[in-house]
Design goal:
about 160 residues, globular, Jelly Rolls, single chain, disordered N terminus
């Protein structure tokens, strides 16, 4: 990933986090060199669980003449935008119909709210600016996602 692409990806992520929701899935530290994300991972018994992961950022001079800023890049093979209607996934929740992630990926929430339920029963609500790392791929039982009262938009990065 070149510096310009990294700068654009960071700008999109920062713009997405400008609106604040009442409830955050992961509290951010005031330290600019660290960023925390929620993740769902799978254990050997094929159950999914939540965790919180701290990402260490390094100061980079990626967009001169702008001042250096903190960043950490990684290769991506696909970026997609997805939209979900209000209440999407509610039937899966009622039926306890879990699904694994199609691939390890990041989900960045751009609008609306979504509750994600791990197969161990723990749930977290994600809103604008939240980032979730999905690692519960098959054969993991997976998770259930339920959209709130308003449509939700996400950006998925693999």
């Amino acid at each position: 990933m070149n510096n310009r692409t990294l700068g654009c990806l960071i700008a999109v992520t920062l713009l997405a986090s400008c609106t604040v929701t009442n409830e955050r899935s992961v509290a951010q530290t005031p330290e600019p060199s660290k960023f925390t994300v929620a993740r769902i991972y799978c254990t050997p018994d094929n159950e999914s669980h939540f965790d919180t992961v701290a990402v260490d950022l390094a100061k980079v001079d990626a967009a001169p003449p702008a001042m250096p800023f903190y960043a950490k890049g990684s290769a991506a093979t696909r970026v997609a935008f997805a939209a979900f209607e209000p209440g999407w996934g509610a039937q899966d929740e009622k039926a306890k119909k879990y699904h694994p992630a199609p691939a390890a990926q990041y989900v960045i929430y751009l609008s609306g709210q979504m509750t994600v339920i791990a197969s161990d029963g723990q749930s977290r609500r994600f809103g604008v600016g939240d980032v979730l790392r999905l690692e519960d791929v098959a054969p993991c039982k997976g998770h259930i996602s339920v959209v709130g009262a308003a449509a939700a938009h996400t950006m998925v990065v693999r």
